[in-house]
Amino acid sequence: MLSGRILTPTGWITGHLDFDQRIQQIREDPAADSSLTILPGFIDLHVHGAEGVDIMQGGTAGASVARSHARHGTTALLGTTLTAKEAAIRRALDGLAGVIAERPAGGARMLGVHLEGPFLNLKRLGAQPPDVVTASLELVQSFHAMAPIRVLTLAPEVAGHLALIPQLRDMGIRVQIGHSAGSYEDGVAALQAGAAGFTHLFNGMTGAHHQQPGMVGAALAHAEYAEVIPDLLHVQPGALRAALRAIPRLYGVTDATSATGMPDGEYALGSQRVFKCLGCVRLATGSLAGSVLTMDQALRNFISIGLDLADASNRLSRFPADYLGETQRGRLAPGAWADMVVLNSDLQPVAVFVEGEAIDLSTH
């Protein structure tokens, strides 16, 4: 049983939450201690690594990353790949398959894969290496057979990609527009074809200008969902506020790298060398290269720019769950998985539960 101020799908109550692997009941009790806040566990749909480990390493990397992020309140996530040679992508997928099939003790639930490359535009690689290829249904099906792809990023303006979107949607994959040099019209066409969202909104895509609205304009004008990195470095607060007004279900992701939770220094992002300094990660060229964000810090950042706690929580739990069609995660309600983060008055995690398992927050 947990007691505190509990965020339910219908609003806040003060009371008690009974659970085993799933939530059994939530009981209102105005006399309960309200010094702790109980939120749905965070759901991160874009994470590359943590604590010196990169998803592209394959093997046990996925389990290590799942444990690292669980200590910051993330109870479910997508292991996210990077553009690479096909053999390297397959190595990563092979490693992820095991952790998707069986949740590691002490770790978040790996819900599947976010395939962020290699179906990108060479002109908008960001920190991705230049090993791009044109997508084909056969290649995606081959990857999907190794480990379930839940989200796939592509540049829709690349020849052949637009026609592929409905086929990927019919496979149950959420297609996201990203690393794209396409126009506003390309973005609208992709959404009409079945694309579901945008990858790290504003970053790795054509920006909005009043004469050329670009991919950012397509997202602001038409998107229901988009992911954004709320580290306040990738997107400045003013732009973030604009997106929050325009996109009903804008949700936060970390885009966390192996440098997350580590001291300043040199780390790996797939085959790229990246450098952590001053709270961010960059290539040697100075370009941003993922982040060192954790979801608990994302919550505090959202609040720092004016969101209330319930809204910030929804953008880190309920909206990403809804985006994937995960109806038993991202909300505190009887029958849902007992995925919870308990926060003190400073919004620091003091307890995390993944499917009812208490996570040891002291392990490093």
List keywords for this structure.
single chain; 7-stranded mixed beta sheet; alpha/beta; globular; TIM Barrel; 6-stranded parallel beta sheet; 364 residues
Task: Give an account of the 3D structure.
The protein is α/β, with parallel strands linked by helices and about 375 residues long. It has one domain: Alpha-Beta Barrel (TIM Barrel), CATH 3.20.20. About 25% of the residues lie in helices and about 25% in strands. The chain is built from 10 helices and 20 strands. The chain has a 7-stranded mixed beta sheet with strand order 3-2-1-4-18-19-20, with no helix packed on it. Strands 5-8-9-10-11-12 form a 6-stranded parallel beta sheet, sandwiched between helices. A hairpin with a 3-residue loop joins strand 2 and strand 3. The chain is globular. The two termini are about 25 Å apart.
Q: What is the secondary structure topology, with strand pairs?
A:
Elements: E1 2-8, E2 11-19, E3 23-28, E4 37-40, E5 42-47, E6 49-50, E7 53-54, H1 61-70, E8 74-80, H2 86-101, E9 109-115, H3 137-146, E10 149-154, H4 161-170, E11 174-177, H5 184-193, E12 197-198, H6 214-222, E13 225-228, H7 237-246, E14 249-252, E15 265-269, E16 272-277, E17 280-283, H8 295-304, H9 309-314, H10 318-324, E18 340-343, E19 349-354, E20 357-358
Parallel strand pairs: 1-4, 5-8, 8-9, 9-10, 10-11, 11-12, 13-14
Antiparallel strand pairs: 1-2, 2-3, 4-18, 6-7, 15-16, 16-17, 18-19, 19-20
Helix pairs in contact: 5-6
